[in-house]
Write a structure and sequence with these properties.
- It is a single chain.
- The protein is of the alpha/beta class and 384 residues long.
- It folds into two domains: 45-63 and 291-383, Aspartate Aminotransferase, domain 1; 70-289, Type I PLP-dependent aspartate aminotransferase-like (Major domain) (Aspartate Aminotransferase, domain 2, 3-Layer(aba) Sandwich), CATH 3.40.640.
- It is built from 15 helices and twelve strands.
Length: 384
């Protein structure tokens, strides 16, 4: 049976935005893909009618009304390729970040940006340097194309060991610097990052540094600053950003990188043509302008995170200081067993991140979700 735009919009219109658009727009790339391949609803119960997803660092509130309205309107042009609108979004991003359009490259989420970077700057003779643990995608791509991976353990405080990473980066092709780092939620201030970049400029001047700022908007540490100004001065540095986190567009898959024109051009040949789409572009353009929504989401995340941190600390568990929309908790037990026990009770928490086998990564949900989830955590921890 064919589905007309009119009948489709009855589903995603006023009555359907909550039932369809919000879950889909808020869904996380990998998790969303798995759910869709399995043909199950994205918000299917996770062992109970009140399943809570705290596993993928998503914005639990989804995008704002301005974004939903823009996506709704974009269905009129869903039959067109996104070239022109994407160029308009690039111009808007450039203006918002104080750079030129030639300094911006779009991606299918920041995931595509990470893939482009590994393919452009590593090879069997030029290694990728990563922290351990950190977001795994760059290492997975490097392994797939035969580039060696040098993993540097995080410090005892679960922060990136920048001195050790600088040493490991001698002769490397690319350093992946996730700041704040996923999964540890720790952040480095601007001075530390700038010193790291200057050190590599002396010891390994041909090495490129990718600073992943996926969680930039959540940072509260006053010493922190974006690396975009450095990237605009140094062709060996560029910054990745995403609309998946605070903007609530993880399911729309749209991200970007900012760097010198020559750095962007080095990645462009590997890029998928039209990897963005009309709906994502429309949503991203509306999201950039909705500063009030972003401030609201920052405050909501802060309040829910503090509540959750206080729960664990009062229960006697150490919470690593977090500058993101998730936290790492030392639960003093096998994190896989904790994950499985929580899932059985309707709460999903983050996957294991070796070598931190007794730590659980917990995303920040709504206050209601965190209140309900902590009751589950209490029961699981008591029975462990």
């Amino acid at each position: 049976m064919s589905v007309s735009r009119r009948s489709f919009m009855k589903v995603v219109g006023a009555g359907g935005v909550g039932a369809f658009a919000m879950p889909l727009l808020s869904a996380r790339g990998a998790e969303a893909a798995i759910a869709m391949r399995g043909r199950v609803p994205l918000e299917a119960p996770l062992g109970s009618p009140s399943g809570i997803r705290l596993d993928s660092n998503e914005n639990p509130n989804g995008p704002g009304k301005a974004v939903l309205d823009a996506v709704h309107s974009a269905f009129d042009v869903a039959n067109r390729y996104p070239g022109g609108p994407t160029a308009a979004l690039v111009a808007q991003i450039a203006k918002a970040r104080g750079v030129a359009p030639e300094n911006v490259i779009m991606g299918c989420g920041s995931t595509e940006i990470l893939h482009l970077a590994v393919r452009a700057f590593t090879s069997p003779a030029k290694a990728l340097v990563v922290a351990s643990p950190t977001f795994e995608d760059p290492a997975h791509v490097a392994e797939a194309i035969g580039s060696p991976v040098r993993s540097v353990p995080v410090t005892g405080a679960l922060k990136l060991d920048l001195d050790a990473m600088a040493e490991a980066a001698r002769g490397a092709g690319l350093v992946y610097l996730c700041n704040p780092n996923n999964p540890t939620a720790t952040v480095h201030g601007a001075q530390a990052v700038n010193d790291f970049i200057r050190t590599l400029g002396r010891t390994s001047p041909a090495t490129t540094i990718l600073v992943d700022e996926a969680y930039h908007e959540f940072v509260e540490d006053p010493s922190y600053a974006t690396a975009i100004p450095v990237a605009m001065e140094n062709p060996r540095v560029f910054v990745a950003r995403t609309f998946s986190k605070i903007y609530g567009l993880a399911g729309m898959r749209i991200g970007y990188a900012i760097g010198r024109a020559e750095t962007i051009k080095a990645m462009a040949p590997m890029k998928i043509v039209n990897s963005t789409n009309m709906l994502a572009v429309a949503g991203a353009m509306a999201a950039l302008g909705d500063t009030a929504h972003i401030e609201r989401e920052r405050k909501l995340n802060h309040d829910s995170k503090v509540f959750t941190q206080q729960f664990f600390e009062k229960a006697g568990y150490k919470v690593i200081p977090s500058d993101a929309n998730f936290m790492m908790v030392d639960i003093r037990q096998d994190s896989t067993k904790f994950q499985e026990a929580c899932k059985a009770r309707g709460v999903l928490v983050g996957r294991p991140f070796p070598p931190l086998t007794t730590h659980a990564r917990i995303s920040v949900g709504t206050m209601d979700e965190m209140q309900r989830a902590t009751e589950i955590f209490k029961r699981v921890l008591v029975t462990a």
